[in-house]
Design goal:
Length: 356
Amino acid sequence: MHVPDGFINAPTSAVTAVVAAGAIAVSLRGARRELDERTAPLAGLVAAFIFAVQMLNFPVAAGTSGHLLGGALAAILVGPCTGVLCVSVVLLMQGILFADGGLTALGVNITDMAIVTTVVSYALFRALVKVLPRSRRSVTVASFVAALVSVPAAAVAFTVIYAIGGTTDVSIGKVATAMIGVHVLIGIGEAVITALTVGAVIAVRPDLVHGARGLEQRLKLRVNGELVDAPSAPAAAPVAARTSRRALWVSGLVTSLVLAGFVSYYASSSPDGLEKVAADHGIDRKAEQHAGAGSPLADYGVKDVKDARLSGGLAGVIGVGVTVVAGSAVFWTLRRRRTADDVSPVSTTGTTVENV
């Protein structure tokens, strides 16, 4: 659903850029509360994984494909504020390096693909978790439904933005019907990918899943006819915990590299939902060439590498690498800022205390 340059007029694009900037500013503050020493590395990995899976277009109808948007997945794994930042990092890398999504439309894309999908999916996810039984399976089910709804919600958001600032004269009713219809189908693929990924992480490290926090209930023992809390189990050795997190991070990175560097070659070549609707209804009549069309990595291929498989694979690997580095840098910086803020001066003698 990457909107190219020329679909939306300049004033509307400017307004969405302001909205996106404001949401990112709020998310930067919110992410400092969501991230800790365990989840900060996972956030960078989530951004890289979303980049990789977005290269895997899957067929949804005759001549149409879809791909992961990732807002629901990021929000559930690392929190809604961090999720907005994860998808925004992906969109920024795609727009600058791969000429995917217009640069003047970056505000539109962040508003639509990062903000709307994350806010809608996480709000629905939290509502479902409250009414479902407190279990890991409920988290997976809620993830599926939230992801499914987030994609047509993004389609509705694009339709509204197009109704306000579209550059071609196309019936909004036709645009809405076509966009929502095809993106309901794409939402099924989004839901499957999100539920499988969340379920896989919960199976090995439920404590790292933001949306699963608070599900574990304290074991009760009956003593003299009364229920009391059971003694806490000994904490896992710090080295073992670090090794477990490291293993999860490495396996996630390897999976992302394999998906982007190898599996992406077999992805559907059909246009995605927005591209198909734009072509069928004339929305793309005023589309403009991307400013980075001459980039060495434009269109997810490496310039001057003739073999298509090798070119696409190298581009995917480079994209995953750049995204994980950029994302990790952002999230580790936020984590360090939180740590610094947790220590505040209390006197002019240089004494400090740590907030608890």
